[in-house]
Each structure stands twice: as C-alpha cells, then as structure tokens.
Design brief:
heterodimer, A: alpha/beta, six-stranded mixed beta sheet, 14 strands, B: 522 residues, alpha/beta, eight-stranded mixed beta sheet
C-alpha cells in the first residue's frame, strides 16, 4: 500500500486547524468581537463523493452545528483507486445582534474505497478529546467495503438511515446493538412524532387488552419506517396481532392508515394525520422532518435507547432495497 | 429492565399531558389574545395537548363560539412567534374552543359554567379535569374563586376525591398577589377556602423563562461553580430588570402599583431566591419551592432607618429613549400630575445565612431606561494576590490590571450566560485583558426556546408546580418589601428624579458607591 500523503497526516491537519483559528481571530479584532470556538462532540460522516449532493450534506451539517457544535470530519468515498486527500475549513455564523462569531471546524477527507483501511488511523487522532464521537453513515458506497470493524470502532455511537440505499440490514444492526454498540437509525427517528401521537391516543388504555392492529402502506414494499412502526407496536401491544397490508394505488411508498381496535384510527396524509378516537375527529401536524432535525434528535441521545433496541429486536427479517 | 409493555419513550417523547378543559376568565382580554392562546396553539402544533383538549373562554362581552374562535384565530395569527400557522390544525384546535358570556359577580354565571363544562366533558372526553385561568383584575380573584366553589366546580385536591383519583381541578392566578402583606394574606385565605394550596398556581412568568430555569441547571448540574457560590468568593450580586418603555397606557394601574410591587416583590425577589437558594434534595416541586421559600425568609427585613440607606425610589421625567423623545411619568395618560409613584427602585438586600452573610444583593428595576434588559451579574472577588500589579504600575495601571471575574446570567432579551475572565494579551510583557465566554440560548445554538407561557401552562396541566410561587413564598417576599412601602408612604419625594433614557437617579449610584461598588452598564 502506498504511504498516506503528507497532507492527510493527523499532525498536519491539526496544525492547519490551529492556524485556521488564529487567522480567523486575527481578521476580527473589533472590541468585544473575536470568534467563539465551540466543540461538544466529534461527528464523523461517511458520505459519497458526489458534487451534486454535496450542498445538501453541507447545509445539514451547518444547521446541525448550531445546536451541536463540534469538530466535523467528513470522509467522502469515491470509486477511483488510490485517492487520499484532505482539506480543513470552518463553518462560522454571527448570531443576530452579536459581535462574536461562533465557529466550528470541519475536516474533509476524500478517499477511495480501496484505501478505506487507512481512515481509522487518520480520523482517530483527529477526534476532539473528552467529548462524544458519533459516526454517521450516509454513504451507499460503504456497503461495498470489505471490513468495517475498525471504522465502527471510531465512534461511541453509530447512525445509519435504513431508508437510504446501501444501508446495513436490520439483522446487522441487531448484531451491533447486541454487541453493545450504540446504534441509531434515522428511519426510526422519522416516526417519533407519529409514535408519540399513537401513544397519546392509547394513553390510559389497557394495552394487553388490545387484540388487533392493522397498518396499511402504499408502494411495492413496506418501507423501513413502516417496519419500525410495526415492530414498535409489537413491543408495546404484546397481545395484539399487528397486520401489515399493502394498499393499491399510485401513492408514493409509505404509511397510509393505522387502525387499533376498538376505536382508534389514523389516516396519514402529507405533513399531517387525521385521526379518530371514539367520537372525536382531530388533526395533528406531522411535518416532514429535515435530515438536520433527524440528526439532532439522535445527537441528543448519547446513551442507550432501550425503546429503539427493543423494537429492533422485533423487526422481521427484511433486506432493504438497494 | 421492565418487561411490562409501555408507551413511554422518555428520550424522545415530550411530557405526557392529561386531557383537560382550560377555563379562561377574561377571555376577551389582552393577555388571552397575546400570550395564552398563542401558547396553547403552539402546544397543539407540537402535539403536546391531549386529543380532547378544550378551552372555555368567559368574559362579559356577548359572543358566540364561532365569533370567539374567529377572534382567537386573528390573535394567534398576529401574535404567534417563531411558529407557522397551520389552517388545518387551527380548524381542529378550534373545535375545542367554546365561549360563555357572563358577569363574574353573578352566581348564575358559575351555574351556567358548570353546565357548559359538563357538556364539554361529555363531548371532548376531558376526564373532568379543569384548569381555571384568572386573566382578570386582581380584585376579582377571590370573588371568582368563591363563585367557582359555590357552584361546586372546585373539587378537592388531587387524589382526595374517592373514586376519581385522577381527576383534578387547579386555578392559575397572575401577579399581583395582593397589594401588601395584609391583603396577600387575605387573598390566600379566601383562595384556600375553595382550593387546596397544592391546586393554586400563582404564575410568575419570570420563573418560566429558560434562563431562570437554567440557573438551577447551571448551579446544581455543574460541579465547578457551586463551590464558589458563597461569601468567600462572591463579592456582590447585581440583579437588573430594566424596561425601555414607560407605562404605555397602563398609567392608571401602574400609579397604584409602582415598581416595587410590580417587579421587585415578585419577579426579582424570585430571581434572587433562585440565584441564592440552597440546593434542594430532589427536583420535586415542593423540594425546590421549600428552598426558595427558605431563602426568601432569610432576607434581612429592613428597619425604617435602613430603608433610607438601602432603598432608592425614582420616577422618570421627560427624556430620550432610542432617539425618540418620551414624556415623563406624570405626563402619561391616567397619571396624576403630582404622582408619588416610583417607576424605579434600587435596593440593597442581605441574606442572613452562612452562605451569604455580608454579601450585598443589589436589585434595580425601572421604566424608561436606556434598554430592555434583565440580567444577573455575579461579581467575584479579585484574585487574593495581585501578582500582575507590578506590570500595571509601569504604565497602564487603570486598564491593564486584572479585573474581577464576572458571571452574567442574561434573562432577556437574549437569554444566555457569559463568563468574563482575564487572559494574557499576546506579546511581550504580562499584560492582562478581560475576555468573555458566551453561551446564548436562542441565537447561538439555534434552538427555539418555548415562551414562558407555553412552559407554565404545560406545567400547570401536567401538575408540576416547580416554577409557580407558593403562599409562603408570596408572604415572605411581601415581608421583605413591606417596610420599604411603609417608609416611603410617609415621605414626599422630589420627583421626577431621573430622565427617561438614563439608568436611574444618582442616589442609586451613591448607594453602591458607599460600599465601593458601581452598577454594571448592561
């Protein structure tokens, strides 16, 4: 294997980061000004190198940094062999009415799949000390990597999105969770508000008396979100049969209705739910949540998530579509 | 791990709220339109209200349910902050809004209200839970509570009624809680004849502010500050609650109240109690309130001669605020031309306990000041040895010597925390300069902070009284301000004594100067 080029050596990257801060502070010398360096975590993102989507990830990261400031290390995976390169920069913003910028630092490393094994020894030393390390897999290419053991060891928590192509199978997530790894799935995060709504409708009821629940979905196959909802209902309604039914139509894949005996039903619409409980008919907002909002919810949870883990254990065998 | 199935997901779900009906007395008033209804709508938008949640508005104005809903919609659209207005959600939320015209002085009103509530309970499945919100003149609090009681609408405190352990009835009142110690006691007695103390929620919206709550998290969630939080390391504390506006149409009310009653007796003494209280054993409502109450009872009650030295009244005159000319208080509508009402107060309080003995707590509040700001400034003592003094003697003594550390807890307008400390200026020589570490709640870290009314309404529905004041706290704070009220009532002041747009009368500066301190300019 060719040695890593000098510009990806951790010491060099750290020196560049240090210089970046000095330069930024020098530019802003007004009284009461300067920059505030904020670091509450290290976020390591594995993403595909794809110029057309780079901005979407960049925007997600900038927004996320405002609530979870930290050092971001983006590892961009490309197909071509032999690539290994890096650059450092800052994401800064001036809070309204303030004199002081808040800045977070970002390291971007571009690597080809066949050099992925070099990444842990580069990224490991770059992580900020004493704060949590989170690894977010946003890449479809990484599914083709031969061995991710060392990459997984980079983080205290691993975030995937089963709704994205190339996401690991639920069985693999289960294996990781059972091995003690903190695992999160943005497909699960997407249904938090829906789960909360269902929970509020069932509040005060004897859960073990509920015998039948039906989930209807649109599309060719049940999405990851539909499967997670089914698994969660299995975990909270132990006596109920949780039927999953596909409904015909041209609607995009997703949830259509939920019926919980005897008198609760929800119709899922775009950004909202119409529900009936007894004589009441109500409306609830279920706005589509941005990737940033999903990520923030997961970053807020730094320990074990037993509700997710219990649901993960109840997922039926299913392989996401590639 | 429990094997019992549960719908709870405390890591992700918001706190669960029980179904209930909120009855708003004074439903056609400003507070309902500007604060209460936008806060309730926002809670609905976040999915935090139970499905059958209902509001019954009550005031004298004749209105149908539909007209009430239309008025409330206008208000929500106008006063909703940082939130989108969703027509479909509003239509659903509005199904739970009802209105009843009535005179709160007429017992028949309460009988009709009972009928209305029974119907709402049946149709909306509110479980019989009722939260009364008294958004009315303070003089009506006791009569309304008695009307509720006479109509048998105030059930015993939670869990006390056989067969309906989950059913509850609570009442929220807004400050002022009396206009002096005697009237506060009388109000409490009359309220408690109808409601158990645990069901009386005395709202102080200052306590609902994120930063005021964050004082508890800051003090008791971090190990590094609490050891410094005492007379050994803290020289003095300044608490400021300044407003840039005058009385703005509230002249008649304000003339009767004054700054001492309007701000210090409630908001600022509560803030002081939060800053200075001992850690509670748990975070339960009563444990926290016990400590706050204990602190309030520890504040030295001044004698008349001490009032003269430690309390300064002020009244604004003509001046300029934000580049605009503003009239003096006595020129405001509804204010007597010779009014003796104070629009500014600066006072020095001492806490008589081991932690704080000898540490002055300077509190000031005023209207028509240069800017709107509420903050707490903790002034730490200087380093015990001035090792950098020699460098200072060489030249820039006044500017380059170390300044005492300062911790600022900002309540509004930008909720946050700043810590000022000294750092070496880069280059040759040991020259120090103060630098600041800032944490800003809203704008720096992008999260929307719930409004104080959202927090407090939610807490009342859930039954968490931590941020509400209790009878003993109200009476303890009246004990503190009563001697000042009594002394001032015997004096005739030369008002106005500060110009609008300034930080108050010179006597307020002199009060601090006597102890070698100066007011911080926020």
């Amino acid at each position: 294997m060719t040695p890593a080029p000098a510009n990806v050596k951790p010491d060099r990257i750290l020196a560049e980061l240090s210089k970046l801060w000095t330069d930024t502070a020098r530019q802003d010398r007004q009284p009461g000004g300067g920059v505030l360096r904020a670091c509450a975590m290290t976020l390591i993102v594995f993403a595909d190198e794809d110029n057309t989507k780079a901005d979407a990830l960049g925007e997600t990261l900038v927004r996320t940094m405002r609530s979870h400031p930290g050092r971001v290390i983006v590892v961009r995976l490309r197909e071509e062999d032999g690539t290994l390169d890096s650059r450092v920069f800052q994401q800064c913003w001036m809070p309204f009415g303030h004199h002081q910028q808040v800045c977070c630092e970002q390291v971007e490393i571009t690597v080809s799949l066949n050099r992925l094994a070099d990444i842990p020894s580069i990224v490991g030393p770059l992580a900020a000390p004493d704060v949590p390390r989170v690894v977010w897999f946003r890449s479809s290419r990484i599914a083709n990597a031969p061995d991710l053991t060392d990459v997984l060891a980079l983080g205290d928590k691993m975030i995937v999105d089963s709704a994205r192509p190339g996401a690991p199978a639920f069985a693999d997530l289960r294996v990781l969770a059972n091995a003690g790894c903190l695992v999160a799935d943005l497909a699960w995060t997407r249904i938090t508000r829906l789960r909360q709504l269902v929970a509020s409708l069932l509040d005060g009821r004897e859960l073990s008396a509920i015998r039948r629940t039906a989930i209807e979905f649109t599309g060719a196959d049940a999405t990851a979100e539909v499967r997670y909802l089914q698994a969660w209902l299995r975990s909270v309604l132990p006596a109920a049969a949780i039927d999953l039914r596909r409904v015909a139509g041209d609607a995009p894949p997703g949830l259509a209705t939920i019926r919980i005996d005897p008198d609760v039903s929800l119709k899922i619409k775009e950004n909202c739910a119409e529900y009936e409980i007894g004589p009441l008919r109500q409306h609830a907002t279920l706005s589509e949540r941005s990737e940033h909002e999903l990520l923030v919810e997961e970053l807020n949870i730094t320990g074990r998530d037993s509700v997710f883990e219990r649901s993960l254990q109840r997922m039926t065998a299913w392989t996401p579509r590639s | 791990m429990s094997s019992e199935p549960s719908l709870r997901d405390p890591l992700r779900f918001n706190r669960k709220t029980p179904p209930c009906t909120v009855v708003i007395f004074g439903a056609n008033g400003d507070l309902t339109k500007r604060k209460l209804m936008p806060a309730l709508y926002r809670l609905a938008w976040e999915g935090r209200l139970a499905p059958g949640f209902a509001v019954v508005g009550l005031s004298r104005t004749a209105m149908s349910d539909e007209q009430f809903r239309d008025h409330m919609r206008e208000s929500v659209e106008k006063f909703l902050e940082d939130s989108p207005f969703d027509t479909a959600l509003w239509n659903s939320f509005a199904q739970g809004l009802f209105y009843m015209a009535g005179d709160v002085g007429d017992q028949n009103t309460y009988q009709r209200l009972a009928g209305c509530l029974a119907e709402v309970e049946k149709n909306r499945q509110t479980g019989g839970n009722i939260l009364f919100y008294l958004s009315t003149q303070p003089s009506q609090y006791a009569p309304i509570a008695e009307g509720i009681g006479a109509a048998n609408l105030a059930k015993p405190a939670e869990g006390a009624q056989p067969g309906s352990a989950k059913q509850w009835t609570r009442i929220i009142i807004e400050k002022p809680f009396g206009h002096d110690l005697a009237s506060a006691r009388e109000l409490n007695t009359r309220l408690q004849k109808v409601f158990d103390e645990s069901a009386i929620y005395r709202i102080d919206h200052y306590l609902g502010k994120e930063t005021v709550q964050n004082i508890l998290a800051f003090r008791f969630g971090n190990g590094i500050f609490e050891p410094l939080w005492n007379r050994r390391y803290i020289e003095h504390v300044q608490i400021t609650g300044a407003e840039s506006i005058g009385v703005e149409g509230r002249g008649a009310y304000y003339q009767e109240a004054g700054a001492l009653r309007d701000m210090i007796q409630n908001h600022l003494l509560q803030v002081m109690a939060t800053v200075a209280m001992e850690p509670s054993a748990t975070f339960s409502a009563d444990a926290v309130r016990d400590e706050r109450a204990k602190l309030l009872r520890s504040i030295h009650v001044m004698k008349a001669e001490q009032v003269r030295e430690n309390a300064v009244p002020g009244q604004y005159g003509f001046g300029r605020v934000g580049g605009e000319e503003v009239p003096g208080f006595r020129e405001e509508k509804g204010v007597k031309p010779d009014s003796q009402t104070e629009t500014f107060v600066a006072a020095t309080f001492f806490v008589e306990n081991w932690r704080w003995a000898g540490v002055p707590f300077y509190i000031r509040t005023g209207k028509s000041m240069p800017k709107r700001v509420s903050e707490i400034a903790i002034h730490f003592r200087s380093a015990p040895l001035a090792v950098f003094h020699k460098e200072a003697e060489d030249g820039d003594a006044a500017t380059n010597g170390p300044v005492p550390n300062l911790l600022i807890l900002r309540i509004q307008p930008e909720e946050g925390i700043s810590l000022k400390f000294n750092s070496k200026r880069p280059g040759a020589g040991m020259t120090l300069r103060p630098v600041s570490m800032d944490f800003n709640y809203g704008s720096s870290f992008g999260e929307r902070s719930p409004s104080a009314y959202e927090t407090l309404l939610l807490d009342a529905i859930i039954g968490d009284a931590t941020l509400y004041t209790r009878q003993d706290m109200v009476e303890a704070s009246w004990q503190v301000v009563q001697p000042i009220l009594d002394y001032w009532s015997t004096r005739k002041f030369t008002f106005p004594n500060y110009a609008s747009g300034t930080w108050g009368p010179a006597e307020a500066d002199a009060m601090l100067a006597r102890r070698g301190h100066t007011w911080r300019r926020p």
